[in-house]
């Protein structure tokens, strides 16, 4: 297959050696599939990024809570009642 810009879509290999375009309809279908794979990949990257940020916030909140519980200024002073 010639690797220069051409308009011959018949017999074109898309992604794998076994994925060949035989007609204009299969070319459009292949184009839609490749586009959907790209959109799905970007959605997955965004979802993983949001999940990572949520886990980092949750971890920071837990660490902050633990630090405040240990600090003596964060607790109220005990009240001792005598007789």
UniProtKB/TrEMBL annotation:
The keyword Ion transport applies. One of its GO terms (cellular component) is membrane. The keyword Membrane applies. It is a multi-pass membrane protein. Keywords: Copper, Copper transport, Ion transport, Membrane, Transmembrane, Transmembrane helix, Transport. InterPro entries: Cop_transporter (IPR007274). Belongs to the copper transporter (Ctr) (TC 1.A.56) family. SLC31A subfamily. It holds the Pfam family Ctr. The chain crosses the membrane at residues 20-41. This is Copper transport protein. It is found in: Membrane. Its main location: membrane. One of its GO terms (molecular function) is copper ion transmembrane transporter activity.
């Amino acid at each position: 297959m010639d690797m220069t810009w051409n308009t011959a879509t018949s017999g074109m290999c898309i992604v794998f050696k076994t994925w060949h375009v035989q007609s204009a309809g299969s070319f459009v279908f292949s184009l839609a599939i490749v586009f959907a794979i790209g959109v799905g990949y970007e959605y997955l990257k965004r979802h993983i990024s949001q999940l990572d940020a949520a886990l980092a916030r949750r971890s920071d909140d837990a660490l902050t809570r633990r630090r405040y519980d240990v600090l003596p200024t964060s607790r109220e002073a005990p009240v001792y009642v005598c007789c």
